[in-house]
């Protein structure tokens, strides 16, 4: 079942690569007493994700900060090394946290898995964005399969 607005995020096992190694994300530290935007993509380095989705958030970081968003995080079912390399490739710098859901455990827990094995890509994440306050989802934007619109930075900004 897909997670919904008003629900609390489950315990998470996400990682990111920092300059000094792999960091396990502390859910409480990430979400406590602040608003966070998480947007998920089917995969790092894929066309729509690289050409549109991630760049839309990079270009709008200041607009999100002006709306009271403390952290913006990009999530994919990839390993932290791939997410780090993709972030460097996209000139993300420190603007966006590049989160890896390596085994897809978090993605499955929230019902956002997307089976792309028929394309040789395995199980990935659906394309979505959510606004989270104190671990509770306040806004959720899920794009239909093959679409990119609802989860764009511009749409999220218009609706928060």
From TrEMBL:
Q: Name one Pfam family in it.
A: Redoxin
EC category name: oxidoreductase
Enumerate the SUPFAM superfamilies for this protein.
Answer: Thioredoxin-like
Q: Which UniProt keywords apply?
A: Antioxidant, Oxidoreductase, Peroxidase, Redox-active center
Q: Which residues form the Thioredoxin domain?
A: 3-160
Q: Where is the active site?
A: 49
Q: Which GO terms describe its molecular function?
A: thioredoxin peroxidase activity
Q: Cite the InterPro entries for this sequence.
A: PRX5-like, Redoxin, Thioredoxin-like_sf, Thioredoxin_domain
Please give the catalytic activity noted in the UniProt record. a hydroperoxide + 2 glutathione = an alcohol + glutathione disulfide + H2O
Could you state one GO cellular component term attached to this entry?
A: cytoplasm
Keyword check for Oxidoreductase, yes or no. yes
A Gene Ontology annotation in the biological process aspect, one of them, is:
cell redox homeostasis
Q: What is its EC number?
A: 1.11.1.27
User: Where does the source fall among the domains of life?
Assistant: Bacteria
Function according to Swiss-Prot or TrEMBL: Thiol-specific peroxidase that catalyzes the reduction of hydrogen peroxide and organic hydroperoxides to water and alcohols, respectively. Plays a role in cell protection against oxidative stress by detoxifying peroxides.
Protein family per UniProt: Belongs to the peroxiredoxin family. Prx5 subfamily.
Protein name per Swiss-Prot or TrEMBL: Glutathione-dependent peroxiredoxin
The organism encoding this protein is Candidatus Endolissoclinum faulkneri L2
